[in-house]
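step 4 of 6: structure.
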Amino acid sequence: MTELSIAEEPVPAPARGPSMQQAINLALEKVLEEDPTTLVFGEDVGRLGGVFRVTDGLQRRFGAERVFDTPLAESGIVGLAVGLAMNGWRPIPELQFDGFAYPALDQIVNQMARMHYRSRGTAPMPITLRLPSFGGIQAPEHHGESLEALFAHVPGLKVCAPSDPADAYRLLLQSVRADDPVIYMEPKARYWDRGPAELAEPTEPIGSSRVVRPGRHATLVAWGAMVHRCLQVADLAAEDGVDLEVVDLRWLKPIDADGLAASVARTRRAVVVHEAPLTAGLGAEVAALITERTFGDLLAPVQRVTGFDVPYPAGPLEPQYLPTLDRVLLAVQRTLEA
Amino acid sequence: MSAPRPADPHPETTGTASPALLRDFYRTMLTARLLDEEAVALQRQGVFPAYVSLRGQEAAQVGSAAALDRDHDFAFPTYREMAVALALDVDMVGYLASHRALWHGGLYDPMRSRFAPINAVVGGPVPHAVGWALGERLRGDPGCAIAYFGDGASSEGDVHEAMNFAAVFAAPVVFFCQNNQWALSVPNDRQVAGGSIAARAAGYGMPGVTVDGNDVVAVHAAVREALERARSGAGPSVIEARTYRLGPHSTSDDPGRYRDPDEERRWRERDPIARLRAVLERDGHADTAFFEEAEREAGEQAIRIRDGVSSAPPPGGEEMFTHVYREPTEALRAQQRAWREEAEL
């Protein structure tokens, strides 16, 4: 298998359409336009347009009542969203960085996720919590976390993570239009990727995965920025005659168990790749779902390639922490040789 | 089960209220007291796994709730606001169902009652009140929110975040703190630095007042004023009602381990119901016939609610699944089907 370092990663094809960060902006613009009860708020999302410029221009266009800055307090932001939702609004709060979701956990877990249940279905809770997520941008501590397993574990939440601009657009429209709270995890490392010029409406239901590259010999399962990494792996493996299928999970709750099973029933081998630490990560859930449904078809145990069970490391160590091309390729090799 | 008649009723009261309103206060406070006694008894009988008595806080709760505009305002309680629920005509069987452990949050309809689900994370609902209130302002609607919390919850970060947000947004919300002196076993001097929750309002640039929480008229006047201010667009305020939790924190608690019986005795002498009765008698607003009738009616209502909650059917097991999402996931549906198959075996 080819050995590659991060510096030698293949350069993505030149792009034409909006970047992911622009696609999310366009999706926000669309929902603000189509639904007068939508509100966008958070730290620095107004005049500045967000630290990643995802909300750029929205306050100018929709006014400071629909798109507004809040004080710097994540629990307060989510708590505000819960109260607004109870009063008939459709809030789209942003927490500036993944690691700052921790100060808001009580409001997310004990309040937002449970209010509909606690009220026996009477209190509406259609909140889309936007969370710039995952690593890969050499950011300071708390700016590169992968919280999907934590959120997916909480009853009442739905969780998604797009991997490219076109899907970021579709998933955001779906999340906002959904009547349940959704954690929308934006892969920071892919914010500037460009995609097709045309952005389209979602056509598949919440919880659908998609095959982003069909293949015959093994299935790679990933979400967020790791989808791109898996596509790189598939390109490299193809040079050695190994034909890998890449499944973009998209929805981390609910997970498309049938879609996973359909892919793995064909390829009979699976490797799940995520940035989060290994232990009790979402890869374990994915592996269990695949195994439950395709045990008889599997030719090898489901492999996991993940971050390590360590706090997210600082800049120079980041490329070694994140699943490298080599680590994924080695896992593919293991599953093929099993 | 009778109306309290302590030796030193402290009949003085601030502010004014019509005799009819005073008599209403009395009836509601007395009903709350008798219902509270029934609820404690239900716990002793094993019907409730636990109960949290509001004994001693009737004036703070009824006085504040009575100031609300029932068509427009919305109350966000924690878990000791039974007399608020009563004053707002919440379905009390549904309310107490929470204490019978039939459904966390209660079985009443919180949206129609304009009284949020019972919330056991103290301080947690306070930012919800701010969000709800901001929602009114954004829509140009006249409603105000009232956030109930205690001296213990005043230490929670959420309460501070909520106050700051409310002041920044000029949200029409009233932060109503019932300072009942004890956060479970921890007294005010180990809980509230500086000694005043109302004083914290100044730091957020809003008015903060302390009222005698056992004086229903004073409480009512303070909340009415704060609501008028909020409704006029002048923003939030803090009211600290100084009162006392005459009973234990919950039926599982033993205050004998941490507080002085003399202190309890001193506060019993300032019982809010006895004080109101003394005012009504002093000013000739109520006669013996009124008090007898009020006691009879309150007792009957308390027993009706007690019997209702004792015999209320628990929600079916399907409800364990049906309210998790508006749009349930296939994975949850599959779990529900599996549960149903097992349940039907």
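step 5 of 6: annotate
 - Confidence is low (pLDDT under 50) at residues 1-8 of chain A.
 - Residues 20-34 of chain A form the longest helix (15 residues).
step 6 of 6: archive
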